[in-house]
Amino acid sequence: MAIETFASTGQTKHTGSYYAASANPSPERPALTGDNQIDICIVGAGYSGLSTGLHLVEKGYKVAIIEGARVGWGASGRNGGQIVNGLNASLQTIKGRYGQDTANFVAGLVQEGGEIIRERVKTYGIQCDLKPGNIFTGLTSTHMKELEARRALWASYGINNQEMLDKAQLREHIGSDVYAGGMIDHSGGHMHPLNLCLGEAAAFEKLGGVIYEQSPVIHTDTAAARPVVKTAGGTMTCDTLVLCGNAYLGHVVPALTARVMPVSTQMMATVPLGDDRANALLPTDKCVEDVRYILDYFRLTADKRLIFGGGTVYGGTDPADVEAKLRPAMEKVYPSLKGVKIDFAWSGNFALSFSRVPQMGRLGANTYFAHGYSGHGVTGSHTFGKILAQAIDGDKTRFDVFAAVPWYPFPGGRMLRVPYSMIGSWYYALRDRLGV
Prior knowledge:
Shape: globular
């Protein structure tokens, strides 16, 4: 993704998204300068870093977060804003790969991220337009069988928040005739993702945490007994280092580079549609995503715009024209929006792991990392932040389970991971089109 900077200062600014344009006020924080010491240093002021940091300052630790741009600049501040429970990999897949015990463990935490978000919003009074409910839609009978199998699988683990919807029932939630039916998850939801980030950052700072912005990390010493982070302007030596750069960490930590691949997804926001027109599109104000491999997702904002997202670009590059890429899909779902003005269009990267299971682990004795949420980072990052904080505080029970899950490199290594993944996406997109 191209770096966007203020021409006069060279500082990195937020992408030109609807979220940046409607963000709550937030201070510009200083860059890291000089040589510094701290108990715990976190790299990355997105959901993973903020979740970890907030849990730790609540426990009394001295914590600093180093951010290369602005709080929420990456995926955390520009995603679809949907609280979708679960991992990219299904519970059935996890059971088949890693065994029943691991599947039971994962099932016990797939709803935890949404619960953490709701607790944070309530505890700290975060204004982020949080609303309940998300809907998965199917376009074919095969999709509906997949959704029913998912509902039954989750129910077998005691998760009973999901409800199947036939075509007529779905029509009560979505003003479109393209879907065969769907499934509602009452424990899901949606919100303004950047404002959630900014609110968590404010809570972190209120409890004594320190955030440095405009401080891209250029080197880390993860093997040292006291890890060191180096930026262009300063250093931070710490007792414990936590790496939460995810898709935007780049090549700063070579040991992590091959583990994930940046993947770009695109979004756009219409002009405000007004109450009547917006309510005709989504009468119950739930967020929506379909179940295809390359999916569409959409929801309403607080000011009654439709945010519509989709598309995938492996390697994390931006398409030349986001609106041209997304508009046909939006108008297929909602023909009444044909020709509607688009006020904002943007892209964002998420980190894809080959297994579609997020990764957590250590580099050396005192450096932790978490990444690879594979498109499910809103909830996964909040859960992993809590697990990282528990591990740093001495309880490694849950951390050790995830750290022991095997990870696999992309076939062919870094050079071939993009073409390999593109071939896979073409195959699954063809299956979606054929309805098989």
